[in-house]
Write a structure and sequence with these properties.
13 strands; globular
Length: 404
């Protein structure tokens, strides 16, 4: 596999910045985050050479034009990745939910390797939790303690890091994807998807159970969301469109459709779209009900009335900051309460619209603070002494390695 630069503007004279996260087309929310992180870095330092460490290098090369260079870090030898680190002036971890059981240690081994090589490290509005595994907790506690700055995207993540035993200042901002800009989702694209215009459209988002949503009961929440979809078809004379935010969501959308009494009124978005195009599609919706965090963020960015269905703390936290109604959990016994909330959301939204706009302006401003903090760190790096140079402090100790 080559790590050659993929774009002609790769020969830049400024700092070399690595960006590490769950990137490579696996999740629309993560791709939205990468789009915004790269745009931030490019705005802060137009001369920066941006190196993305990707789980699928070909996808990242094809979809992120702001990346000067893409390096694969899964399915390659450890040395292949480690050779890239000494040439960096800064390694950015995230954003997105990368600090959770089974995954945190994988990302933080690379962060620790960069620290050992004297590379400054920055946590870019990351999400944390659940963190119950002893090895992951130890990695988070030790590696984040040595990072130059740690920014998390929500209060829930700050509390998780505190519970793990991290003893350092942690700044709470907001999800980087709040700065995403929409791209057109045209009438031709709607026709290709078989979605009728001129009728009310409700967007829905489902997700698979997994390490980030272990308490979800599949049959339970499939039936619950089918009840909601059928209610909205009847109540609003609407069509329901399921928006898969990652590939596993398609199967679960089909499962919800199979539980509906009016499956002919449902559609699943099948095309391969950029995050900006998905955000553009949201402009066609009249209402949104969903589980995925970035589906909720996209709906709110567009000004669509949205009911979050919190399966985890990060969704509940965003719903709280948004001022949106949110149930605690997703369970069949909550069907009546959920339908009542959907009904109330539709009826009351005209008077809630301005409040939502105000809150989104505030959250977007907070999200920009992460970018500013990263830019300040970059500005300081220009004056950073080279290791071994005259005047460098020989007494600064290196961080201890994280066990492989």
């Amino acid at each position: 596999m080559t790590t050659a630069p993929s774009h002609p503007h790769s020969a830049r004279s400024g700092p070399r910045v690595g960006v590490l996260g769950s990137y490579g087309g696996f999740n629309t929310g993560d791709e939205a985050i990468l789009t915004c992180v790269l745009a931030c870095l490019r705005a802060q330092r137009p001369d920066a050479h941006l190196v993305v460490l990707s789980r699928d290098a070909e996808h990242t090369r094809g979809h992120h034009r702001d990346a000067d260079e893409v390096v694969p870090w899964e399915g390659v030898s450890r040395n292949h990745v480690l050779d890239v680190l000494p040439g960096l002036d800064l390694l950015v971890l995230g954003g997105g939910g990368v600090l959770y059981d089974g995954e945190a240690r994988r990302y933080l081994r690379l962060v620790r390797a960069a620290q050992i090589r004297g590379v400054p490290t920055f946590a870019y509005a990351v999400g944390a939790g659940p963190l119950t595994d002893a090895e992951d907790r130890e990695a988070v506690r030790t590696v984040l303690a040595d990072m130059d700055d740690v920014v998390v995207r929500d209060e829930e993540s700050r509390l998780v890091l505190e519970e793990v035993g991290l003893e350092r200042e942690v700044t709470v901002t907001a999800d980087p994807a709040l700065l995403l800009r929409p791209e057109p989702f045209t009438g031709a694209m709607m026709r290709d998807e078989g979605i009728r215009t001129g009728t009310r459209l409700v967007g829905m988002s489902v997700r698979e159970p997994g390490r980030a949503a272990e308490k979800l009961d599949e049959g339970d929440y499939h039936a619950l969301l089918a009840d909601v979809a059928d209610f909205l078809v009847r109540r609003l004379d609407a069509r329901v469109v399921f928006l898969p935010m990652e590939r596993h969501d398609v199967r679960h959308a089909h499962a919800v459709l199979s539980h509906m009494t009016a499956p002919d009124k449902g559609r699943i978005l099948h095309g391969d779209y950029s995050p900006g195009q998905i955000l553009g599609f949201m402009r066609h919706l009249d209402l949104a009900v969903g589980m995925r965090l970035h589906f909720v963020i996209f709906a709110a960015l567009t000004g669509v009335p949205v009911l979050p269905l919190p399966y985890s703390g990060k969704v509940f936290d965003f719903a709280r900051r948004l001022g949106a109604p949110a149930l605690v959990g997703v369970a069949r016994e909550q069907a009546g309460l959920l339908l009542a909330e959907v009904d109330r959301l539709w009826d009351e939204y005209p008077k809630r619209r301005e409040n939502l706009r105000d809150r989104m302006r505030e959250l977007s401003a907070v999200a920009r603070e992460t970018c500013v903090r990263c830019g300040s760190l970059l500005d300081g790096i220009d004056a950073r002494p080279v290791a071994g140079a005259v005047g460098a402090d020989p007494c600064v100790s290196e961080p201890r390695p994280l066990h492989a």
